Amino acid sequence: MANLAKLEYAALEITGKNYLTWVLDTKIHLEAGNLGDTIREENNSSSQERAKTLIFIRRHLDEALKSEYLTVEDPIISQMKLCGNTITEEMLLEKTYSTFHASNVLLQQQYRVRGYTEYN
C-alpha cells in the first residue's frame, strides 16, 4: 500500500511554479510506460490505456487541483455529451460565468455584455 502513495516525481503544485518540469517529467514517464500516445490529440489509444494515464496524472497533482479541476468541470461536460447535446463555446462560457465567485457578480455581468472569452 505504501508503494501506491509513492510518487515518481514531484506533484504539480497549485501555484504552478513547477509546471514546466512537471510536464516534462509526465511526458517522459508516460513514454517509458508505453502510454505516451494517450496524451496526443486524435490518438488511437484504448480506454484502458487512457484510464491508466489519467490515474497516473491525477496521482501527480496537488490535492487542491484534483478536487477543483478534475471533479467539477469534467463531469459537467461529460454529462452534456452523454445527453446528446452539442457543447458550444457559448455554453462553456456561460458555465464559466455562472461559477464566478459571489463577489464578482458585477464582473460576471460585464463579461457577458461585452462578450469576453477569458477570465483571470
Rg, rounded, reads 18 Å
For the secondary structure, the number of strands is 0
Strand content: under 5%
Number of domains: 2
Protein structure class: mainly alpha
Query: Whole-number average pLDDT?
Result: 77
Percent range for helical residues? 55-70%
Low-confidence regions: none
Shape: extended
Biggest β-sheet description: none
**H/E series:** HHHHHHH
Distance linking N and C termini: 40 Å
How many DSSP helices?
A: 7
List the main descriptive attributes of the protein structure presented here.
single chain; 7 helices; mainly alpha; 120 residues; 2 domains
What this model shows, in words?
This protein is 57% helix and 0% strand. The chain is mainly α and 120 residues long. It has 2 domains: 2-70, no CATH class; 73-114, no CATH class. The model has no long low-confidence stretch (mean pLDDT 77).
Which SSEs are present, and which pair or pack?
Layout: H1 2-5, H2 19-32, H3 47-59, H4 63-70, H5 73-82, H6 89-98, H7 105-114
In short:
This protein has 7 helices and no strands. By secondary structure, it is an all-alpha fold.
